[in-house]
Write a structure and sequence with these properties.
Length: 318
């Protein structure tokens, strides 16, 4: 089926006879494979008498050879399908895999965002990317790390012309009020000594129609640019940006990137509600501190907040 999908990925019409000839099978066998593609991959296929078959829209498929060129900062493996790219990286670390290395997938069956939320992962439309890192020197090396990854994703999206994209503390990227990307970091090992961090990144790339499971406003790179995005070029730029920002974070610390992060924070100075379990804290965003914690003005007093279970929302009076 993947060979058939490669023939159809241009989004143009292909006759059943031409597809059968290319694959060395009958037209009826082509029809069965097309039905399987629709059922298993969730890819709508149009049939027009006299013209043949085409996908609803063109696809940009990932190519391992393009992602492992001489300029690649780390080895990269592409999967057709995974439960989640973060889970695959964790399995490889448990089996003795040596970081850094990256994993991407055309689709995920159990993609996750922060606080256990599901990350909708349709086939070959978005980017599901996970990077394994070794962290030496204890927890201080982790300060602001998720925010640094956000800066690398921001740099990548702006390189593709999305100049209106910005950051939302702690791990989201938005265009206006619509989410376009997110970051999820998971720690493996002892944060006081040598440990591993799995950097998970999800970017809405060529998604045009969302599944009902998405419970918040969203957008995609193609929606914003009106052009099909080459996902291989996107991955290569993301890897290069990550490599540069992570190197700077390692050598200079998060404090060197703090001002750049605040300049890109869409909610700087805005009135917000910080949600921690059942507790809500109302304040105004002052920025972040040298560790990446959120600085809020609460009842005239500055307070700092950090933690993976916190959620930030604009308040009604913002």
């Amino acid at each position: 089926m993947l060979t058939l999908l490669n023939l159809l990925r241009d989004g143009r019409f292909h006759s059943g006879q031409a597809l059968g000839a290319a694959l060395g099978v009958s037209r009826s066998a082509i029809w069965k494979q097309l039905q399987q593609l629709e059922a298993e991959y969730g890819l709508p296929i149009y049939k027009v008498r006299g013209r043949g078959y085409r996908l609803q829209s063109p696809l940009s498929l990932l190519d391992s050879s393009e992602l492992n060129g001489r300029s690649a900062p780390w080895p990269h493996e592409v999967f057709e399908s995974l439960d989640s790219t973060n889970a695959e990286v964790m399995r490889r670390l448990s089996a003795g895999g040596v970081p850094p290395f990256a994993v991407t997938a055309e689709r995920q069956s159990q993609g996750r965002g922060r606080r256990g939320r599901r990350w909708v992962s349709p086939y070959a439309q978005n980017l599901y990317y996970s990077l394994a890192l070794r962290i030496d020197g204890g927890a201080r090396q982790l300060e602001g790390l998720s925010l640094v990854v956000g800066l690398a994703v921001l740099d990548t999206l702006r390189a593709f012309g999305l100049m209106s994209v910005g950051l939302k503390w702690p791990n989201d990227l938005l265009v206006g009020s619509r989410k376009i990307a997110g970051v999820l970091l998971e720690l493996v090992g002892d944060p006081a000594d040598i440990c591993h961090v799995v950097v998970g990144i999800g970017i809405n790339v060529n998604m045009q129609v969302a599944a009902e499971e998405i419970d918040q406003p969203w957008t995609s790179m193609q929606r914003e640019s009106a052009e099909l995005v080459d996902r291989n070029a996107l991955v290569n730029r993301l890897s290069a940006s990550l490599s540069a920002y992570l190197a700077r974070h390692k050598s200079e610390g998060f404090s060197a990137l703090r001002e750049e992060w605040e300049a890109a924070h869409l909610w700087q100075g805005r009135a917000v509600n910080l949600i921690a379990g059942v507790q809500q804290i109302h304040g105004r965003v002052m920025g972040i501190d040298a560790t990446g914690a959120l600085r809020l003005s609460v009842d005239g007093e500055e307070r700092a907040y950090s933690g993976g279970e916190l959620s930030l929302r604009l308040s009604d009076d913002s």
